[in-house]
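Good morning,

Both structures are done.
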Amino acid sequence: MSNTESSLSEQQEIRLEKLQKLRELGVNPYPFEYDVTHHSADILENEDKFISEDDTEDNSHSVSVAGRVMTQRIMGKASFFTIQDSQGTIQIYIRRDDVGVEEYNKVFKKLVDIGDFVGIKGFVFKTRTGETTIHAEEFHFLGKTVRPLPTPKEVENEEGETVTYDAFSDKELRYRQRYVDLVVNTDVKKVFKQRTQMVQAMRNFMNDRGYMEVETPILQPIYGGAAARPFKTHHNALDMDLYLRIANELYLKRLIVGGFDGVYEFSKDFRNEGLSRFHNPEFTQVELYVAYKDYNWMMDFMEEMIEKVALELHGTTKVTVGENEIDFKRPWPRIPMYEAIEKETGFDLAGKSEDEIREIARELSIHVEDEMGKGKLIDEIFGETVEPKLIQPTFITDYPIEMSPLAKKHRSKGGVVERFEAICNGKEIANAFTELNDPVDQRERFEEQARLRTEGDEEAMTVDEDFLKAIEYGMPPTAGIGIGIDRLAMIMTNSDSIRDVLFFPLMRPEKD
């Protein structure tokens, strides 16, 4: 056992002894409830409402707060400590003569540790140094911690610089123990609050336009709607294999067939792929489908919605991401895919055969596999040469038909479809089509995907006969889009990794 583990074990043993002493004193270390009337931010932001002008230590506005003990300055008959609740931290002043000798001497001074939950009832005043503080008139023990929190310490070195020791900063440990990360690294909460605010702004934007939020199956007998490998499971009662959805597109389009003009879903999707800074096998996206619209309308819709999200989160359309300032102000550039590739590489891929494109990829030193079809080859070239350079939000439009089995053929250009991807900060954040509603054409595209599967492309789509049946009943002209919530949240919160915007990202098993 390492010295760290030995030290931690000793601290746990001490806390367990304190737990027993609390019980011996008749104090329930884990009571059932506590009446909280205010939170730290309520008090600190509205202190004039709580503090009497003529007497700083007497106020008819009593408060009841609760939270974790985060710092302690234990003195003789009176002490200061801080508690952290869901909104922030606030200082508490506690005196033996107010809360009682036993409560103060035996419980507070000897048995309360950093991280313990306590409840305080009292009044608000300002200390001589001007800090808004709660004067405790009642002290209640609410929860004993038996494992100590990491406690960063700031020390001034010989050069007068402030140095932090024992910070809970190891990223892998933070992701594994998010519950600790949220307690000791308070800025982390801000990221997740902004993520929720972002999702709510998008939801409000779509609701205000009359689109209906729906739910579709996560367990699917046939997976589809994207090019990806699925997770597979088995239903015992029906004795059938099922898949976790990789997208909810085909079910939402079934609802357009059924007569809804606009439906959307914030969905958890699952793709059996590797982990990276931009990929988690379980991720969130919102998909929206609107009848009688096309991809041109959807570009207008998306840039208006994301501009509004930036304004709601930051009060400006400009967002700082790493070293870049990204401006979501409309309109965003719109560049056809072949044109974007030619600009960066000098190669015009339009009309080229699969073999010609494979040879161009090799000339560009891009690694390609023999089983890659034309669409995959073009996607690799675009991903290596163009996508990383698109920092400002940009629409890449008019994708090769081989890359887009669910999109409608372009109305005026041969060999491409009416599709766009929104690229920002070097990564795709959205994918959208003028949806294919021709059942004959759709069947041919599915069959081509089936051929690619037989040639080794594990991410090629499968034939979904029920979806084909649905659009054979007739689907109106429709625009559809999927927006990656996790990647958009990374940009909106200036987060470096997708794991920074997921409460509990998937992690490799811990080694002993």
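Second structure follows.
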Amino acid sequence: MLAERLARDAGRRVLIVDRRPHIGGNAYDCYDDAGILIHPYGPHIFHTNSREVFEYLSRFTEWRPYQHRVLASVDGQLVPMPINLDTVNRLYGLNLNAAELDAYFASVAEPVTQVRTSEDVVVSKVGRDLYRKFFQGYTRKQWDLDPSELDASVTARVPVRTTRDDRYFTDTYQVMPLHGYTRMFQRMLDHPNISVMLNTDYRTIQEFVPWQHMIYTGPIDAFFEYRHGKLPYRSLHFEHRTHATTQFQAVGTVNHPNEYAFTRVSEFKHLTGQRHEHTSVVYEYPRAEGDPYYPVPRPENAERYRAYEALTRTRPDVTFVGRLATYRYYNMDQVVAQALTTYRRLHPRPAETAAEPEPV
């Protein structure tokens, strides 16, 4: 987004450098050997309440409506996730209505004086049993930590509903790029001021390519050569499989909070709407080592990040954006919003008054 804005709106020359062999980062998609459009780095589902973000991306893609649904495998059943009225009724053999479910949650919730951890968030809302069935095992696999050891923000992201609404998200805009994310990125970067260099570590060329300002999206601790020690990240291993059937599971994603080493299985045809005689799915296995995906939200990690953040003020020639460079868990729409806000800060003048193109 920043490359597109700087090139198209500000008239700057931009060089994008990526160590991977493709554009798009983790949102990159492609066709597998079976001809099915997949997300190699796990499912990426677009949703936002921001009209600005939606309208900006709409310049580069058409959309298909898609409302993501998730089931969780619990006690031998597949039940809706987030927890809703149907989840509770089916698990416990009840016949509650919405008002009665509110009272039920109140009856099983454990009072917490001050909500500090992910465990506090859940048990104070829905009690200990639902916490164990849906959150404790999943969190331990995902983070290799108990929810009691993680910041409240981790489980606060997952709502609990008293209605039968089984959509995973409730945002105003819930869509997928009609022809995929990579096609959208290709259109975004289709500008004469933009050059792309793949399979390249920026550190190997920064002394040989003239530049005035760098926008850095990698891990912030790596940029500063781990001066304050490594920031912990969680990684993922993806196991892709193709099945000789038109559909593998009933919804886009099935969570497995308690069984198996993987956390979830996603089927891409639900997301993309593609029609094909076969189907492809991906199993996600959390890992301690590998490409960094998730900053680990704990107080000591936030403190270490602040030490790195202080170092960024010594580098006015570099702007740090994105999940890894700011050590925050962002959804895709939040990254787009951050990029647009950053652009306005970097280039507050209207495009028509911009100076002559300069290297970036």
